[in-house]
Amino acid sequence: MNEKVSTVHKFGGTSLAGVDEFRRVAGILAGAQGGPLAAVVSAPAGVTDALHALVHTAEQGGDWPAGLEAVAARCRELATGLLEGAARAEWLQALAREQSDLHDVLKATALIGRAPAEVYALVAGHGELWSARLLAAELRRRGVDADWFDARDALVVVDSELGPTVSWEPTRERFAASWTDPPAVRVITGYIARDPHGAPTTLGRNGSDFTASIFAALLDADEVIIWTDVDGVMSGDPRRIPDVAVIPELSWHEAMELAYFGAKVLHPRTMAPLVARAIPVWIRNTARPEAVGTRIGEVGEGGGVKGVTTIEGMALLNLEGAGLIGVPGTASRLFEALRNAGISVVLISQGSSEHSICCAVPRADALRARAAVAQAFAAEMRAGQVEGVELVHECSILAVVGEGMRGLPGVAAKLFGALGRSGVNVRAIAQGASERNISAVIPSEDADRALRAVHAAFYLSPQAVSIGVVGPGGVGTHLLDQLAGEIPRLASESRLDLRVRAIAGSTRMVLAPRAVALGAWRDALAAGVDTDLDAFTRHVQAEHLPHAVIIDCSGHPAVAARYADWLAQGIHVITPSKLAASGPLDDWRRLQETRRAAGVRYLGETTVGAGLPIIQTLRDLRQTGDEIIAIEGILSGTLAFLFNGYDGSRPFSAIVREARELGFTEPDPRDDLSGKDVARKLVILAREMGLEIELQQVAVESLVPTELEGASIDEFLDRYAGWDGEMLARLEAARERGHVLRHVARLDGASGRASVGLEEFPADHAFAHARLTDNIIQFVTRRYRDNPLVVQGPGAGPAVTAAGVFADLLRLSAYLGADV
Fold first, then answer.
1. Which of 217, 186, 293 is nearest to 249 (CA)?
2. For the segment 16-74, what is each residue's pLDDT rounded down to a tens digit?
3. DSSP string of 715-761?
4. DSSP code for 142
5. Which residues are the active-site residues?
6. Which residues have a Cβ under 8 Å from the Cβ of 149 and sit 6 or more positions away?
7. 329-342 b/e with 16+ CB inside 10 Å = b?
8. Average pLDDT taken over every residue of the chain
């Protein structure tokens, strides 16, 4: 007898749900290469459940005849759609006979009012019989040499604590007696078997997978292919994580770990016969047979983290007390109490101090678990040696799995860093000595966000960031247009998923479920709803996305006043607005404290110098131990433009108008001319140096006449020409001395003195050579005392500032784990 087949295929119920699905499966088998094949089949989707329910209905005295006829009608419809002539008649006659037999069994069940397990197995197993016969007949219709085999003729199964278990010796004996030389394709019934006494039984839910692995072992197959409704084993749950990927290869151990945590992969008992004989198994998609799928078997070293998954519906039980330290048998007593209560322990964690021990149990068993442990340690609790048994409800267990994690430094750091950055609190941690799995107990409400954050942290999917933009004015408009052009590239090159999900102007806002179409964001905003920053905030901080950032380009005090609340909620903030960073010192301290407590980022590189790296340079100097002696320079691109272009040939007021028309000034040019804008920048730099100064401590020379401070913008621009003569006189006086006029800010690191105003400089001074809107900053430090460190470049213009804001967003993304 030839017991060898090249491949065992297995098709589940969804792969055989209808006529088209049966045809697709028959096509796959007809086109398969190699020697004789075996195909294990489940019942058509829903049939097993319907048959099982018939027995229960009969027990309860319900209308089981109608249910039986409905199931039979569905099967007749399948046969009618597939078969023709004598083959169809033969199949329908067999169905009619078995329907009559089932009628008698169910009628007897209804009379008795109860059904033993054998009756449930007998009735429910008919779905596999019908599938196997129907698929074999369809293959023969296509000209394929095919027959079918009743697995009950070979499989002997006994119940055990681990579920249905194969009795291998009698199974091999019965298999040898019943198996004949196979045709090109032999279709085998899945799920059904017999007990040692010959009574019908089953292999339990998903038992057809187990059937396939058992027959692969009996037949010494080269491989097993499990055909299902997905392209393979996914790196995460696609219903909860966007952009999951098919894992091309898994080891047996990795597959078992993922299966234990509920991933759509083979059950460990299914893999056991295959592991023993080193038979690889493939997970492939019936609807996409061209897809390669996932191979499970022996694999080489490496690969890092393969998948991220969770177990939901858990509770954390914690036993704590000084009396536990150094006492032998504590864990034994704890788990003995849970075992006696019939409660399964999913995860265990204990610190080396032995002060506490905790375990995760199913939420449904949580109260019984606490009662059982409290009873076991009642004496210690009365004596005060044990503080009590704490129960934390609504927990989930998140796990990262991968054979390549063994000996690879930094995996745990990346896991917990990702959870921390996404604001997820870890209640307990467990890692086995094999290092294939690191598990963390987290609040259930954070599970989706945690899954996405960790999945992205290991580059299994793009790093998703939910973005809200406030103020689509000059800077905001350029930022949104820049994002529109670069987001696709960042997604493909850096696996960074930047989603602008909300845009808010002063009166209108648009909220998008996934992302605003940035190519048409202006139209979307115009068609939006009334601005409501509370609703805007709630939308940006989506539970299903791990990270949220609000970018404020509005420059509005009411928006800046919200920064602390946003940070406290775990929302990162990026802004070119100087209002918060240069506001009252107490407010600034509170902002920093809130940021640190929430573990989020507040980024404002563009508050000084637009896109120039001024703040970052200052931080680098301080953090590397340098001492800042002084900072001086031209901190306003607007004022740089004004005085670089002012040579007396045109009135100063005309150059102010030109700068405003070019977008180099604030909407109200007095914000620049007053020197307050530069003063705010100086305050920001001072605070970055560690100096605690207020805005009013900066000595400011204003270029706005007192009588025009309260005028309208148009009135100011019209009347400012009256001061052109005064400005011309200052210019000519400087020229007589061979000097130029420049608007300069100065900050003394020792005394904290700060000043802003118009000064004269020799023609060969560095400040005299700044071009157009250039900012030029000199850092005089202990290292750079004789030759100051200079940062120079364009410091004004909405496009430049927007690019700096974009750079801050990329810096934040890198901090969150993106590869940028």
1. 293
2. 999 999 999 999 999 987 779 999 999 999 999 999 999 999 999 999 999 999 999 99
3. HHHHHGGGGHHHHHHHHHHHHHTTEEEEEEEEEETTT--EEEEEEEE
4. T
5. 681
6. 132, 178, 179, 186, 187, 188, 189
7. ebbeebbebbeebe
8. 90
Neighbours of 584 (CB within 10 A): 12
HEC profile of 376-409: HCHHHHHCCCCCEEEEEEEEEEEEEECHHHCCCC
Structure tokens at 405: 């994690």
**Alpha carbon distance 722, 708 (integer Å):** 11
- What angle, 0 to 180 degrees and rounded to 10, lies between the N-to-C axes of helices 64-82 and 126-141? 10
Judged on CB neighbours under 10 Å (0-12, 13-18, 19+), 261 is: buried
Q: Which residues contact 293 (CB under 8 A, 6 or more apart)?
A: 225, 231, 232, 246, 282, 283, 284, 285
Segment (H or E) for 19? helix 19-30
- Band the pLDDT of 386: cuts 50, 70, 90: confident
Using the structure block, give the residue that is written with the tokens 């983290």: 305
- The H helix count followed by the E strand count for the chain is 29, 31
**Predicted TM-score of the model (pTM):** 0.67
The dihedral formed by the CA atoms of 496, 499, 504 and 509, expressed in degrees to the nearest 10: 170
Residue 2 has pLDDT above 70, yes or no: no
Nearest C-alpha neighbor of 17 from the set 134, 122, 192, 103: 134
- β partners of residue 317: 359, 391
| Higher-pLDDT residue of 452, 504 | 504
| Rounded-to-integer distance, Cα 763 and Cα 727, Å | 19
Q: In terms of Cα–Cα distance, which of 346, 348, 308 is closest to 448? A: 308
In the structure encoding, which two tokens stand for residue 424, read together?
């997820």
